[in-house]
Design brief:
Blueprint (H helix, E strand, L loop, with lengths): L2 E8 L3 H16 L4 E9 L3 H11 L3 E3 L2 H6 L5 E4 L6 H10 L3 E4 L7 H14 L3 E3 L7 H11 L6 E9 L20 H4 L3 H17 L2 E9 L4 E3 L6 E3 L5 E8 L4 E7 L8 E8 L2 E6 L5 E6 L9 E5 L20 H18 L7 H20 L3 E2 L2
Parallel strand pairs: 1-2, 1-4, 2-3, 4-5, 5-6, 7-12
Antiparallel strand pairs: 7-13, 8-11, 8-17, 9-10, 11-12, 13-14, 14-15, 15-16
Helix pairs in contact: 1-9, 4-5, 5-10, 8-10
The chain binds nicotinamide-adenine-dinucleotide.
Length: 378
């Protein structure tokens, strides 16, 4: 008989739905010692919170996240709010001894992230950050290949995350749904929102970054603010590109923008080693492109592996070989991995401390863009 892990979710937007789906599906596909129970959701509007609870199966609602965090019937707090609330909620949840699953980026900046790490470590509570792209089977497969040493010496890592939804100068900034355009709520623009994903994957696959040089641009300088109704300066980076050195001696190249007309969520990465290259694209997420220099003869070339066989990561839990899964499954996998680690009292990666490394790279990138200098990652 599985033990319950009673979830208290805060925020019910895009990620509130993605996580709720993950909690609901995990029991149908994974055999686990702990299973999530959707105990309560906290949001400020009681009617909307109740409608969300009814749809996804939460037992009750709270309108104040502080009450939820202090409730005896909650074991784990799931933070699905805009970035400026992550630290306050996480520190309070740690104080109440709750396990914490926090959305990315961990924090507004590394200094805030340090405080969050100190809080969960002092309280000794389980903690994890939702860098879910690690759990896409083709990405996990890339990690396994890299860890086997097959690539040899690594020369290059490059990644991009491109969107096009903020091109219109008429789009307001701030408030519900548009908090990402307001640095007071988001911390930064594409750097913390999109590049943070690329950086987390890169650190996981290729190790630590030593220094960076970056440029950012804000193409639309003023927008109407939804909360004040006034036209105000835009405080986020609309686009960011940076170069870096990894500690393993390889070179990194990263680009992100919300002004790449035609691209909705193009996340790609490529890693070039002495013996092998790997390439992945979110828009074809179940495929991993592989070039193996050891393949003999004139038939050598790039191959496209359809990562859907039962000996591929996570795929034995789903359908029969050849049938693809999608974006939402990465959250099911992350829930499953968290619960497995929770049962074994092991850290579930990326922990707050792992995610702090991404935050430090983001800080260095933003600092370099300002100073026009190479900046070391602490
Ligand atoms: N892992 C991923 O791929 C991924 C994707 C999207 C967003 N995110 C992250 O998830 C978090 C939420 O993003 P989203 O896209 O779900 O945003 P969203 O705007 O869709 O939802 C945010 C939710 O927070 C709620 N909220 C705001 N202030 C609150 C308060 N004081 N008390 C309680 N609830 C409050 C809002 O009502 C809303 O329900 C962000 O940190 C974002 O960076 C991660």
């Amino acid at each position: 008989m599985a033990q319950p892990l009673r979830i208290g979710m805060i925020g019910y937007g895009f990620m509130g739905r993605a996580h709720s789906n993950g909690y609901n599906r995990v029991k149908d596909f994974f055999d686990l010692e702990y299973l999530p129970v959707l105990q309560a959701v906290a949001a400020r509007d009681p009617a909307k919170a109740q409608a969300f609870a009814d749809r996804w199966g939460y037992k009750r609602v709270e309108t104040d996240w502080r009450k939820l965090v202090a409730s005896d019937d909650i074991d784990a707090i799931d933070i699905c709010t805009p970035n400026n609330l992550h630290a306050e909620i996480a520190i309070e949840a740690a104080r109440h001894g709750k396990a914490i699953l926090c959305e990315k980026p961990l924090s507004m900046d590394a200094a805030e992230g340090e405080k969050m790490c100190a809080a969960v470590e002092k309280a000794g509570v389980a903690n994890m950050v939702w860098y879910n792209y690690r759990r896409i089977p083709a990405v996990t497969f890339a990690k396994n290949i890299i860890d086997s040493g097959k690539l040899g010496r690594i020369f290059h890592y490059r990644a991009e995350f491109l969107q096009d939804w903020t091109i219109s100068a008429d789009l307001p900034q701030g408030g519900a749904a548009l908090w990402r355009l307001d640095a007071a709520a988001a911390g930064s623009g594409v750097t913390g929102d999109l590049l943070a994903h690329c950086i987390d994957t890169a650190l996981w696959l290729n190790g630590a970054v030593s220094d960076v040089t970056a440029m950012t641009e804000t193409f639309v300088k003023e927008r109407k603010h939804q909360l004040t109704g006034k036209v105000e300066p835009v405080t986020i980076d609309d686009a960011c590109s940076f170069l870096c050195h990894f500690k393993n001696g390889s070179l990194g190249l990263f680009e992100s923008t919300r002004y790449a007309r035609g691209h909705k969520a193009l996340y790609t990465f490529e890693i070039n080693g002495e013996n092998m290259s790997l390439k992945w694209d979110l828009s074809d997420l179940h495929r991993l492109q592989v070039f193996d220099y050891n393949d003999a003869g004139p038939m050598r070339g790039w191959k496209s592996i359809h990562v859907t066989d039962s000996d591929h990561p996570y795929m034995d839990k789903w359908w029969v070989p050849g049938l693809a899964i999608g974006y939402e499954h990465s959250f099911v996998h992350q829930v499953a991995d968290f619960l497995e680690c929770y049962a074994k009292k092991q850290p579930a990666h990326p922990t707050f401390r792992d995610a702090l490394e991404t935050q430090k790279v983001c800080d260095a990138v933003l600092s370099s863009a300002k100073s026009h200098q190479w900046v070391g990652v602490e």
